[in-house]
Amino acid sequence: MSMTTAGVIGGGAWGTALALVCARAGLQTTLWAREPEVVDAIRTRNENSVFLPGVTFDSPVAATGDMADLASCDLILNVTPAQHLRASLAAFAPHARKGVPILLCAKGVEQGSLKLMTEVLAETLPHACPAVLSGPSFAGEVARGLPTAVTLACPDEDLGRDLAEAIASPLFRPYLATDMIGAEIGGSVKNVLAIACGVVEGRGLGRSAHAALITRGFAELTRLAEALGGEAETVAGLCGLGDLVLTCSSAQSRNNRVGLALGKGMTLDEALASLGGAVAEGVASAPAVRGLAAKHGVEIPICDAVAAILAGEADIDTAIAGLLSRPIKTEF
After folding, report:
1. For helices 301-310 and 281-295, what crossing angle results, to 10°?
2. How far is it, in rounded angstroms, from Cα 55 to Cα 171?
3. Which residue, among 114, 128, 24, has the nearest Cα to 77 in the 3D structure?
4. Low-confidence residues of the chain, pLDDT below 70?
């Protein structure tokens, strides 16, 4: 399938970065943003000064506030936050062609329904062709053209290859997979675990505890993916372990920064306010991940502890003590 045009839904930092990825790959790219000030900044200053200040676009990206302008695009990337995905897809539905490929780039589990993003897509746009983009990537680095590798998961292998070839460049390399569930769980759970790692950092618990948390958190992530029908091999790659290591190890991660602030004694409201309006997906996903695991009978003690802290059900020191006093068990 030949692809020459791309539409990006979502004008935040990650949506802007992916619009630049598409434009650099030679696609005629249109970015839809909810905020008029984002559309205006891109049109007049060639920059998303609201969510990605300081990055001047090096490739042409059109900006619009009208979903209809994306109707003819060969490829749609939806980059709205997970809890807003359903609404954005419903808004696009009147303009969507049957069979249009939609690359889902949000990382999370929908609150209430406990649905993965592909399930939300199937309910709102059942005739679209789904794919998932996930992996270790910070919006600012991608926007500046720094080397990045990600997972592109699509059950239709031919379509997956077409999508990868359409957006790939020497500095943005998609690796192909068919397991969308594994890719989605990797991206969702790592955000929750990044909050935990931030708490560890904020409490000054040391690098040994940090490494242990990443490793045991990865075990939780893998168990949940497999319980839902995903593959351990998938989450051992870029979209699971790779993204987990990145997000848990850098203050560039919004989720990590929220945990860091909590660990230092801030309230959740104060921690979120410190992000300046940016979204930390793990905060909304934590209770949904906990609910999804409980539904499938999967033990995820670290993610449970994060959800309890965020919900005000346990203070940080109590949650940490609970994890450290768990019974001794075999590692595998």
Report:
1. 130
2. 17
3. 128
4. none
Tokens at residue 177, please?
A: 């997979």
Identify the DSSP state of 97: P
Alpha-carbon distance of 140 to 173, in angstroms, equals 16
**Token pair of 81 as six digits:** 């936050």
How far apart CA 53 and CA 278 sit, in angstroms, is 13
Told to judge if 190 belongs to the known catalytic residues of this protein, a careful annotator would answer: yes
Q: Please give the structure tokens belonging to residue 220.
A: 């939780």
DSSP class of 131 = E
CB-based contact 256:197 (threshold 8 Å) = yes
Q: Determine which one of 107, 190, 264, 295 is catalytic.
A: 190
Q: Pseudo-torsion of CA 275, 281, 282, 285, nearest 10°?
A: 140
Q: What is the pLDDT of residues 234-290, one digit of tens each?
A: 999 999 999 999 999 999 999 999 999 999 999 999 999 999 888 899 999 999 999
Please enumerate in sequence order all residues whose Cβ is within 8 A of that of 308, keeping only pairs 6 or more positions apart, or say none. 314, 319
Decide: 32 and 9 in contact? Cβ < 8 Å: yes
Compute the CA torsion angle 285, 289, 295, 297 (nearest 10 deg).
Answer: -170
Query: Residue with structure tokens 């749609």?
Result: 76
Q: What is the rounded CA–CA span in Å between residue 230 and residue 306?
A: 23
Q: How far apart are CA 189 and CA 224, in angstroms?
A: 9
